């Protein structure tokens, strides 16, 4: 976990704590289903931030005999648990509360207090989202200023390897969306006296959060199972290796994330025939040095060199293995 990503989570944790307490008091006084959904949302955000911090702490443990590649995937597991909590508690609670408000409506009180609370929450969440966007740009190595920060972060969010940074970004974006819906619902319900809008808003907030939880759970499942790096990263690895004298071609590159900002590489490269053992060792060492110096995300590497007169044998063996595995 980068220090910038850690900072984003701590800021989100502090913001969510203050926002939850404020919303909880307003929901209790105002008796609004939409306000109650937002209080549940902030509670979920608070708990999720704690889960992510636990994942970061456990993932930072050094490799040992039972886990030679380290504990980096802990952060994916705890991020998965956070998305399950978001779905089970926040989404279902909001949908249930909205349904009860529609079928058995209860009057909303202290509308001005809820307006003020929601407006204050928007300010808090805006600061948190901006920090999350900066963490996204930091993770992918992009730069932007002003209003372009949001569009640049949104375009690059799928390339973020750090699940905590990705979770906080989507969480804060969903929070702002929910707050906007709640503001409109409280205003319309208070103006028209029709409490159905309050219930509908609560259900919409629950659906938005449920969809986000499912999406994040799917993303973290892919990382836990062993997702490969983005094709641009794989291409960059191959380009760097091709710069080493003695490498003729790159036959295969397999990658897998073993943690946030930790990548495992298995590479097969073609060299000139009749290569001496010492020369092969030097080439492997140089490829590793160049890749690691230019790509800090690479933590583990395995490089196999094949002379061009052995490529046919390697290809035949690989085809047999592919048929066997299928």
TrEMBL record:
Provide the Gene Ontology terms for cellular component.
membrane
Which Gene3D superfamilies does the record match to this protein?
Answer: Cation efflux protein transmembrane domain, Cation efflux protein, cytoplasmic domain
Where does this polypeptide localize?
Membrane
Q: Predominant location of this chain?
A: membrane
Q: Which GO terms describe its molecular function?
A: monoatomic cation transmembrane transporter activity
Sorted alphabetically, the keyword list is:
Membrane, Transmembrane, Transmembrane helix, Transport
Tell me the ranges covered by the Cation efflux protein cytoplasmic domain, including all copies: 234-303
Q: Which InterPro entries match?
A: Cation_efflux, Cation_efflux_CTD, Cation_efflux_CTD_sf, Cation_efflux_TM, Cation_efflux_TMD_sf, SLC30A9
Tagged with keyword Transmembrane: yes
* A GO BP entry: zinc ion transport
Q: Which Pfam families match?
A: Cation_efflux (PF01545), ZT_dimer (PF16916)
- Membrane-crossing segments per the record: 36-54, 75-96, 108-129, 167-188, 200-218
Q: Tell me which residues make up the Cation efflux protein transmembrane domain.
A: 9-224
Q: What membrane topology is annotated for this entry?
A: Multi-pass membrane protein
What is the designated name of this protein? Cation diffusion facilitator family transporter
Organism from which the protein derives: Desulfofarcimen acetoxidans (strain ATCC 49208 / DSM 771 / KCTC 5769 / VKM B-1644 / 5575)
Q: What lineage does the source organism belong to? A: Bacteria, Bacillati, Bacillota, Clostridia, Eubacteriales
């Amino acid at each position: 976990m980068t220090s910038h990503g850690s900072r984003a989570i701590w800021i989100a944790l502090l913001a969510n704590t203050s926002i939850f307490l404020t919303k909880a008091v307003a929901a209790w006084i105002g008796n609004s289903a939409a306000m109650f959904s937002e209080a549940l949302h902030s509670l979920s955000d608070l708990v999720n931030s704690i889960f992510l911090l636990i994942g970061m702490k456990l993932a930072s443990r050094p490799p040992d005999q039972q886990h030679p590649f380290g504990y980096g995937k802990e952060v994916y597991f705890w991020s998965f648990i956070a998305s399950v909590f978001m779905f089970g508690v926040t989404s279902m609670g909001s949908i249930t509360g909205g349904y009860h408000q529609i079928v058995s409506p209860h009057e909303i009180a202290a509308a001005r207090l809820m307006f003020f609370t929601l407006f204050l929450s928007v300010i808090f969440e805006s600061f948190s989202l901006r920090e999350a966007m900066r963490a996204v740009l930091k993770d992918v190595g992009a730069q932007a200023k002003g209003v372009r920060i949001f569009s640049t972060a949104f375009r690059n969010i799928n390339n973020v390897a750090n699940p905590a940074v990705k979770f906080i970004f989507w969480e804060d974006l969903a929070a702002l969306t929910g707050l906007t819906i709640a503001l409109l619902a409280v205003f319309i319900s208070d103006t028209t006296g029709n409490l159905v809008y309050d219930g509908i808003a609560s259900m919409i907030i629950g659906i938005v959060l449920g969809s986000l939880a499912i999406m994040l759970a799917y993303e973290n499942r892919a990382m836990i199972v062993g997702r490969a790096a983005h094709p641009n990263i794989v291409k960059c690895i191959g380009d760097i290796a091709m710069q080493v004298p003695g490498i003729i071609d790159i036959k295969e590159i397999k990658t897998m994330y073993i943690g946030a900002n930790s990548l495992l590489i298995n590479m097969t490269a073609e060299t000139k025939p009749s290569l001496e053992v010492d020369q092969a060792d030097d080439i492997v060492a140089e490829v590793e040095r160049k890749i690691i110096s230019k790509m800090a995300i690479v933590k583990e590497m395995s490089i196999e060199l094949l002379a061009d007169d052995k490529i046919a044998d390697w290809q035949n063996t690989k085809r047999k293995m592919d048929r066997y595995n299928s």
